[in-house]
Amino acid sequence: MYNFLKKHLFCFLCVLFASLIMSFNIKTFVNAVGLIPSGFNGLSLLLQRTFYQFFEINIPYFIINISLNVFPALIGFYFIGKKFTGYSILMIIFNSFLVDIIPSTPITYDSLLVSVFGGIMNGIAIVIALYGGASSGGTDFVAIYLSYKLKKPSWNFIFIFNMLILIIAGFLFGFEAAMYSIIFQFVSTQIIEKFHQKDHKITLIIITQKPNLLSQKLMEQTHHGVTLIQGEGCYSHEQKTILYTVIGADEVRHVSHLCKKLDSSVFINIICSKDIKGQFYQKPLE
């Protein structure tokens, strides 16, 4: 019971902290030079500005953002995970109301500085949400769904969707802000790719004296397949056993510690895998 409450408290705090960062970023950096952030947050701001400028109708941000996220939330609920979608909806609600509540306090009006630092803050907010088992909603649901289907990172695919929003924004409000928004979104996407390691794959080549024990424990704890290869050390001419496996980047620390614990003389070569084809176990979201 204690671990259950501790886990949910951690998720809730991540969602709250990520919402605060994202909302503060919108009111501090994004609005300062009229940028369009990524995903449905950007689409919400675009619609809000369009209604205000062309029709003189001031629609609250939370009404637009929550309305846009209804359909993506259904995708998340049915295809990704109920717990994940629940926390994502919580973040959408927090972020939507905080954007309307937090006062606008620009730090700088330098478009390049705003694009870079605003993109960093936006990426960090999304990474924190993902660590807490949530997302900022909208296109994040689509990106995570594609990641599980394609077995590789898909945030760059969402970047293409964001470009379409920026083209529309360019025609409506001028292309200078739209081009700076590209920098903002590119920086944000690279931050997510760098720090959200779950979608990245790592190949391990393990030389061990306890192949049966290690292979059994690795399969039990990671659910990934292990291939055993017999070899010979060229220097010592001793028979060597090599274990070959592919795991998620977020599992490397745990697996390395496990191997060292079971065999103190183990040798592990850690290789970044650009892509894999075939079956690969991916733990489903709750």
Question: How is this structure best described in words?
Answer:
- By secondary structure, this protein is of the alpha+beta class.
- The protein folds into 2 domains: 2-198, no CATH class; 200-273, Alpha-Beta Plaits, CATH 3.30.70.
- Helix content is 64%, strand content 11%.
- The chain is built from 11 helices and 4 strands.
- It has helices at 2-33, 39-55, 61-68, 70-79, 82-101, 111-131, 139-150, 155-173, 175-195, 211-222, 252-262, and strands at residues 201-208, 227-232, 239-248, 267-273.
- The protein has a 4-stranded antiparallel sheet, with helices on one face.
- β2 and β3 form a beta hairpin.
- α6 (111-131) packs parallel to α9 (175-195), α8 (155-173) packs antiparallel against α9 and α10 (211-222) packs antiparallel against α11.
- The longest helix has 32 residues, at 2-33.
- The radius of gyration is 23 Å and the shape is elongated.
- The chain starts with a helix and ends in a 13-residue tail after the last strand.
- The mean pLDDT is 86.
- The chain crosses the membrane at residues 59-80, 87-106, 112-134, 155-175.
- Its main location: membrane.
- This is DUF2179 domain-containing protein.
- Keywords: Cell membrane, Membrane, Transmembrane, Transmembrane helix.
- It comes from Massilimicrobiota timonensis.
